[in-house]
Structure formats: structure tokens, C-alpha cells
Amino acid sequence: MAISEEEKRIARAYNAGYVLSAYEPKLLEQIIRNNKNNEFVKVMDTAREHQEFHRGIPKKEFTQAYKNGYRNAQALCQHEPELLERMLNSQGMGKDYTDGLNAGKKEYKIRQSMSRMKQERDQQQERDRGLDKNMDMGMEY
Predict the structure, then answer these.
(1) Structural contact between residues 28 and 58, judged by C-beta atoms closer than 8 angstroms
(2) What domain count does the chain have?
(3) 40 and 13 in contact (C-beta within 8 Å)?
(4) Which tens digit of pLDDT belongs to each residue from 31-81?
(5) Nearest one of 4, 5, 48 to 25, comparing CA atoms
């Protein structure tokens, strides 16, 4: 399955937000504050939240229910995506748990796209190496 341009753009924004959050958090905060309606910046903000969560930076939004939802979302995305959707659409779940599920689902989808992009790039490099070897042996296609 080919990666769409939209998925590539989201992956670039996610990577930029994740890295800036670690190395230039003040710059990232300024970018987010000045471009609230930009979709690229919204993905960067999501990446910042994920990076802060993974590093264990304490935030009041990261309640235990949020953390549980975030961690459960990956397993649900992999093994029971229909159940995850039903849980997100149900009214009986706590807001923090549901927010954690949504955040975990977003990260899972972004990481899946990034993984597919890496696979495609690796496959292309293997094909290129194969062509280079054949050219070195005097074979041309």
C-alpha cells in the first residue's frame, strides 16, 4: 500500500514537533501559539504532547485514567479496532480515559504511517542496491 502525500506530511509534522519538543521547547511553544489554526502545527502539538507523555513530564492532564487509556489504545488499535471505536463513541467512559484513548489512537496511526514509509524506503534502497550490483557485473536491464 503506497503512502499518501497527506500521510507523509503528517509524519514530517510529527517528527518536527517531537524533536522540537525535546530540544527547542520554547520555539515550539511559540510556533504553536502563533499558528493555532494550521493543520501542520496541530500535528506538531500532538507530537509535543506524546513526547512529554513518553518522557514522564508531569502534567495535570495526565491523570491515571488518561495514562491507562493512552496505553490501552495501542493494543486495541492492533487487535480490536472495532472495539476501540465503540469505546470512543460510548458515553459511559470517563473523559480522561477517552482522551487518553484518542491520543493513543492518533499516535498509533502516525507511527504506522511512519513505519510504512520506512519500509518503502528500505525496499527502494534494496532495489537500488540490486541494480547497482548488476551494473557492476556488466549486466544491464
Answers:
(1) no
(2) 2
(3) yes
(4) 999 998 998 898 898 888 888 877 776 666 678 888 888 889 988 998 998
(5) 48
How far lies 51's CA from each of 66, 73, 82, 101, 102, in Å? 15, 16, 27, 16, 15
- Domain span including residue 67: 60-141
Q: Do 67 and 129 belong to one domain?
A: yes
Residue in 113, 110, 112, 99 with CA at minimum distance from that of residue 70:
99
Helices (H) and strands (E) in the chain, counts: 6, 0
CA end-to-end distance (rounded Å), the chain: 26
85 with 110, same domain? yes
- Residues 64, 47 share a domain: no
Q: Is the same domain home to 78 and 36?
A: no
